[in-house]
Amino acid sequence: MDAALLIEKSILVLVILGITLLIATYSTYAERKVAAFLQDRQGPNRAGVFGLLQPIADAGKMFFKEDLIPAASEKWLFIMGPGIAMFTACMTGAAIPWGTELHVFGYTLNMQIADIDIGILYVIGFVSMGVYGIMIGGWASNNKYSLYGAIRASSQMISYELAMGLSIIAVVMMSGTLSLKEIAAQQHGINWNIWYQPIGFIIFFTCALAECNRAPFDLPECESELIGGYHTEYSSMKLGFYLFAEYINMFISSAVIATLYFGGYNFPGMDLIDSPALLGWLQFIVLFAKIFFFIFVFMWIRWTLPRFRYDQLMHLGWKSLIPLAIINMLITAAVVLLRNQTF
Amino acid sequence: MMQPLTNRSKQVVNKEMTFMERIYLPAILKGMAITISHLFKKKATVQYPEVQRPIAPVYRGKHVLKRDDQGRERCTACGLCAVACPAEAITMVAAERNKGEEQLYREEKYAAVYEINQLRCIYCGLCEEACPKEAIFLTDVITPVETTRNNFIYGKDKLVEPLNARIDVSKRQSWRTPEQQS
What we know:
B: alpha+beta
């Protein structure tokens, strides 16, 4: 590997990580603002203009809080829990194509950190690893509520991963590749996967909500019955890591949804633009616009729907989404087969 | 049957859900339409320190111990306000006026210490009604925020009206009928 590539990739990693963290930080602000606006309130508006410095104040507060480790907890696992949650959340961004190419100062940057040909498997793999962070944290706390939250989280995530995987299989069969770059490239212009996989999208989106522990599937947290669920015993930045990981997951989920179903960086009329430099930037901007829209939808849903009951959650996962995903997969398979034979 | 208060009440029935209801999506979309419509509605918030809600002319806020037209304290420490106070928020220590203090106190007896605990006070205005000397009044000033409990015990330094900044309490009094004013 030559040094130039190494430097290019390191810079890209740093930039993407920085953007991820920045967006996660400001998602906390956006969440509060969206919640407020949907409830006819103002939201945070005291720290800085429009309260824009609020996330920085919150982070500062988090750092200066007393960091408690319960005496009866498994100390190392207790520390590891939020670490794993954060690590897995940050890792997923590597396989997502953030655009095609970006021309900066005469260099041409490939906007994907790692073009793995099993990209989507890599993402799903790391997303499912995320449950370990919650499970280990909840178990190590040595607290009934934490344990309940952790058990709920693990069973919920395992249940919804199935339907999620099945809905992805349908997309993968259609595009004939596991590489996220290829999947994005195939949805040129407005030839987006959503037109072919509307049911798959609804299943995937529902599962993404459950995977991110977002309302209406925020049972692992469940502050009204489990006092915060798996992070009951956490304080200071360890708690901050868990909350932060949730927002990073939300960002990454939005990116994956945009890439899989909404054309990633593609937009209608992209062939009309001659300059590749301008096109590169536009693609980057379009992808982020789509991501922000989905982050907003995540929040919009959170402030609309009440939380599911645990049995309802399991019913929805096992009795509705998985059969629906299987049917969707079978129909897709049949159509793909017929199309390949006729053409 | 009870008279419904609004026309939004619905009879609860335990019927089987139809297919459309069971797939949730129409209901979810309906709910989302309702929440998004609130995005564009007027915010209910009043930005408090900068904007203040209009208060009624008869609003009962922070107390003031009035001085008379010559600038002498009217309070004679009779204790009727403390007796009238249902929250027992008022305490006072009376003292006798010495020679040469006629410019300070109107009567021969005055309140050396006069304290109102603003945390106990319920702003009912009974002290004002009990006062025979028209010394204590409730103003339209909202009691400001403090960070310690001790600061809420207002002494004479915070209660007695300053000589150079007289407080007008007539707005509240003018709402009373002439019989009550006398």
